[in-house]
Amino acid sequence: MESGASQVNHSELSVLIRSIIREEIGAAFEKFQPQLDALKGELDSCCQKLGDMEEGITDMDCRVAILETANGNLMKENKEFKDKIERMEIQSRKFNLRVIGLKTDIEKNDPIAFVTNFLKEVFGSELSCEPTVEIAYRIGQGTDLRPRPMIVTMQRYQAKEAILKLARSKGEIIFRDMRVKIFPDITPDIARKRALFNDVRVKLRKAEVRHGLLFPATLIVTFNGQTKLYRDCSEAEHFYKTVISPVSVQTRNEGGK
Description:
This protein is an alpha+beta fold and about 260 residues long. It has three domains: about 90 residues; about 90 residues, 2-Layer Sandwich (Alpha-Beta Plaits), CATH 3.30.70; about 70 residues, 2-Layer Sandwich (Rec A Protein, domain 2), CATH 3.30.250. The protein is built from six helices and eight strands. The protein has a five-stranded antiparallel β-sheet. Strands 6-7-8 form a three-stranded antiparallel β-sheet, with helices on one face. The longest helix has about 90 residues. The termini are far apart. The mean pLDDT is about 85.
């Protein structure tokens, strides 16, 4: 009898314990339910914000893609405009000479007449055509040691080219105790491109290799009976290092022996 009663008591006790546990758990949930509801609300809000951010990012990606396309088109148009302006400026300087070394105010009030007489006095009968000057004026700033350059516009392109050829052959021109140099009047952009060849041109001169610059900025090199053109200074430098320099070193060594 005691064994049966013991089993009943154990069963009732188990039921009672489970009931108490459920009640405690239910009470605990009821206690924390407001906090859980608040967390759920914040989580829902975060999810909503995250969705809005994803939509915003997608919209931004579309706008960035549109802007990148527009920027690419603008860059292309800008380059076309720059190239067009450069061509127009080159064309506008086609008949121009840049004369450096003439003392300030030596032309007095008639630069055209002065430059005309200057060209005739310097080159004389070597000129194949009349050096008719249309415009002559000073540019930039200068000092007593470095007078302002003079821009001279010739009436005929052939005369301008003939003067440049004679100036190159003479090297340096002495005119009334002034050291004068005559160059083509090139744009700043072309001047920068031509300056990129300065280093390799120094090496070519030391190696006594025939070379020159073609307009607007192309290096021409004649070596071992072959003539090559370079528009990229790095390619010209590579040709010097791999082809010209080894031959020059070997020639110097043989000469030393």
